[in-house]
Amino acid sequence: MKRTWILIGVGALWLSACASEPPTGPDAGTELLDQVVTTMGGWDVLSMIERQELISEGTEYEPHQAVRPGDERELNIFNKTVMADFTSGSMRLQFNGDRSYPSPGTVRFSEVIDQDVGALITPGEDEDSIERLQGSRVTARLRDVNRLAARFPFVARDAGDLVRAEDQVIGETTYQVLEYTDGGARVQVLVNIDGFSRVPHSVIYHETDPLYGDTRNQMVFSDWRPSQVGATDEGRAISAQLPFSQSMFLNGDRYLEESFRNIINNGTFDPDTFAIPDEVRNAPEPGERVLSQITLRRAGMGFGPLPGYAEVPIVAPLEDVAPGILHAVGGSHHSMVIEMADHVIVVETPLFEERSIGVIEAIQARFPDKPVRYAVVSHYHADHSGGIRAYGALGATIVAHESIVPFLETVLGSPSAVRPDTLEESGATPTVEGVGSEPMELSDGTRTVQIVEVPNDHAAGMVIAYVPDAGVAFVSDLYSPPNPVDADNANARAFYDAVVAAGLDLETVVGGHGGTGPFQNLANVMN
Prior knowledge:
By secondary structure, this protein is α+β, with helices and mostly antiparallel strands. It has 13 helices and 26 strands. The strands form three sheets. It has a 13-stranded antiparallel sheet. Helix 7 (about 355-365) crosses helix 9.
């Protein structure tokens, strides 16, 4: 069931906080920050926190992997330890998760950031592997440290552009607002001024997302309690008010609930806590330091670095499947390219823009006189639709199930000013066409492509693309040829049943994952 949260989300209504205008600007920002810090214990007390060890447990969600847009999908339950040295700018994160999606299993990794260099450590059966941490993941982790309750006041104070913005009313609650810049990203701090609290409600970073473009990434604080940071000469505890629970949201969709079992201030760390081997330290860092939550959300599913994100376009070899039908392969996610008389149809727009640009460049080299006229989205999950904006920039018509058309129209209508992409730069307004329970036909008079609905429990609004003259169909997630599958696999059964119900004369299956294979292999199992 979808939960309702009082958050800053897409389409939120902002009202004037009161009849008289509140003070705004730099001086008002400094005054408000001082008031907040006083509530938390004062500058002197917060300044005593030089190191923190945060021991937590919680649940991660992935809104872009739910059955329907706007729903939730639980990824894992986890326990986590973060050790941060604020004096050196170093941190270490140890993550242990019990994963429920995309398949049951465990997720274990550590990340170390020593000042400006990051490393990813993955446990192995014989020995741990260690590699340079992706630039985007480094930036996202440092962002998380900078919005900790013990840290953001100092980041805001030292930003150089701290201001108090206009008050905001969300629901029945009035918030005072601080704004500043951190690492090139615009940040808002909402301060709850109802009652006597005057504690920070949340910290919001305005960042980028491959699918949504500009996003609001919001950490919401709760369960404020005293946390000892030192002691007087007489032995009395000196404490700061800190939150012992936090939630995280992306454009209003929850993706984390976390509670701290313990917050240890100014403990002692082992000297090797932030050690990174020279061979890793000297290795090139993959990708640009683009601030985006996507790399951290993938980590919770047990996936390593996101190859190609914020890098150069990914090379996408085109492998012949049948005359005029090609498999655009590379990495973990694939597309299918269908040659028509005077244009090209691309089925599947996965991952992110760099992936789509790689496919587009391969198509232009192979078919220089045939533009991409249609881009078909098999389902809305971010790893399968994340590159859609690049096709919208081309002016291609987007084809998807009618139930996810509103979602895709929102995605394609979102600005991407934080990190301008090709759609932002083109100024195009893409058209999205929906497929219902009856197949849609895309035809040029010589070749027809059918887009067919597949009822299933993995993702509502799933479709496959079928080319009758070649006996070829493309499917994602439900079945990955030529890999074996059990007869009780519900996703594979859904695909098989849809093919039979539609009367498709299917010979070859092309996978969004995996490779290609005879449909008969699946039929033999399902029969």
